[in-house]
Structure formats: C-alpha cells, structure tokens
Amino acid sequence: MTSMSVPDRAGGKGRAALRRGRAVAASKPFQIAVALAAIALGALLIYRALKDYSFDELVAAVGRVPTGRVAASAGFAAASYVCLTLFDYLALRYAGKPLAYRRAALASFVGLSLGHTIGLAALSSGAIRYRFYSRWGLDAGEVAKVILFCGLTVGLGLSGLAGAALLFEPGIAWDMAGLSPAATYGLAIACLAAPVLYVLLAACLRAPLVVRGWSIALPGPKLAVAQVAVGVANFLCVAACLHQALAGVREVGFAAVASAYVVANTATILSHVPGGLGVIETVVQHLLPGVGLVGPLLVFRFTYFLVPLALGTLGLAASEAFYARGKGSR
C-alpha cells in the first residue's frame, strides 16, 4: 500500500533537482559528514548543559532528592524511550518496510536522544535516522513516511494526555494560558476526541485522504490503536519521570505535574527550544513556588536528556565504527 504520494507539479526540472538531492543525501561522504557532525554536536551539548555547575554543586543538588525517587525517575525515563522505539517499529510497518525491533530501537534511540537536546527533533533526529535506515534498504521517501508517522504519534499522545490532564487538573491552564473554565474543559474534550476520531477514521475510511494535493493513506485500525496507545504511554512516562523528581522535595499530585508538563511541552514544541530549556523550569516554578527546584530539575534533565544523550552519542560513534569495518552488511 502506498502511504503517501504527491502530485507531479514540479515538471522535469523539479524531478531532476529532487533526484540530485536524493543522490547527495545517499552519498557516503554526506552521510559520514552528518554522522560526525551529530557526534560532535552531542559532545558539545553535554558540555554546554553542565558547564555552569561545578561537580560539587551538581552532586549536592541531586543529593537532596532521595535515591528512590532518582531511581524511579530514571526508570520512567527508560520506559519513555522504550515507547519511542515502538514509534519507529510501528512506523516502519506503516511505511511497508518492517525491520527487526533491534534495528528500529537503535535508530530511534540514537536519533531521538540527540534530537531532544538539539531541538527541532523531527528534523535533527530525522537526519540521523536516515543514516541508519538508508543502510537497511529504505529510500528517502520511506524514511519521510516513518518520520511523519512518528510525528503524528507524538501529536496523538500529547493530545490524549492533555485532555485527561486538563479535565483533572485545569488550574495550570487557567493560570498560565488565561483560559476560562469553559474553554479549558472544551479544549480537554477536543483533545480527548482527537485520538478517538483518528482511530474511527482509520477503521472506516478505505480510500486515502487527499489534503491540498497530498494523498495520505491512514494505517489500519489495529495499527492506529497501537499508535495512540504507545503515544499516550510515552507522555505518561515522561510526566511520571518529572513527577518522581519533583516529589523528592515536595509532595505534588501526578495530575498537576502532568498538566504542567503538557503546557511546558506544548510551548517547547511551538518554540523549538532545545530540551525545553527554561520552559519547563518556568512552568514548574509556577506549579511549586518557593521550592528549591535545582535538584529535582537536574535529576529530570539528567535522567531524561543527558544520560540518553551520552548513551546516544556513544551508540552513534560505536555504530559508525562498526559499519566502517564493513560488518554492517552481515
């Protein structure tokens, strides 16, 4: 099944330019340059994130959070990245190019662990994913389908969590977004309805949707349900990661943290701020005024951003060394 196609509007020159662009993207020197740039950028981002703190300050701030909470936060962060690997695993099936889970997991984790910190995650992680998937037989169009499917999964997951969070803890939206109670509850219902409508469309529509000349085939109903489920599960895990870090210094309800995270993450997506720097801090400070948040927020950033970033950078370097020795074809 063709997942997505676009009408031929570009003419001969446009098609020639597209072929040249794909040839450049597929060339080995270009892919090596992308990989080296990503590794260097990963190392730079780790340095920039930590350069304003001495080692003793970092240890002291994190030490104020109970060890059990740190471990729980790390566990939920790991669970979130497992969910993210399933984004790619499902997306590859949608694109008609299913791969073994270990390959989908490697490409997803390396791409997103760097992309979350770089910013513009779809583009930055997409370039890294292309490096992996092109080795395993996907062309540029098929990788684009994977990235679009994953982006839609993010939207569906965030919409589902946002709807539930706004229903159970609407105060954050009232205070920070200036929404009235009626508007907040209306938005909550709309957010909850979006994933439901998506699954219904996937179950009922047989013909592709045509939007502004683009033909988009929805996944089958089982794949759509799995897509929504893993999308919501991912954001539940991220919110739980943040909640465990914050609960280490002050008791706070999960629904309140989830609502705050939804507001912060939406602002991060719209602003493309790398890692949500400053955005999450502002929202959490509003949720817990007067509380020393350096420790718990560092725990959250360590477990969800910095540790995966370090592992992803090492994973990318190791995979490049592995393929450079010619073992990737085995």
Number of domains: 1
Biggest beta sheet summary: 3 strands, antiparallel
Let me know the average pLDDT: 80
Query: What portion of residues is helical?
Result: over 70%
Form type: flat
Unreliable stretches covering 5 or more consecutive residues: 1-11
- Helices and strands, in order, run as EHHHHHHHHHEEHHHH
> Would you count the extended β strands for me?
3
* Total helical segments: 13
Strand content range: under 5%
Query: Structural class of the secondary structure composition?
Result: mainly alpha
CA radius of gyration is 21 Å
Query: What is the first-to-last residue Cα distance?
Result: 29 Å
Task: Walk across the major sheet and give the strand order.
Answer: 1-3-2
Organism: Aquabacter spiritensis
GO cellular component, one term: plasma membrane
Protein name: Lysylphosphatidylglycerol synthase-like protein
Keywords: Membrane, Transmembrane, Transmembrane helix
List the helices and strands and how they pair.
Blueprint: E1 4-5, H1 11-26, H2 28-50, H3 55-63, H4 67-94, H5 101-118, H6 121-135, H7 140-168, H8 171-177, H9 181-204, E2 209-211, E3 214-216, H10 221-247, H11 254-271, H12 279-287, H13 294-324
Antiparallel strand pairs: 1-3, 2-3
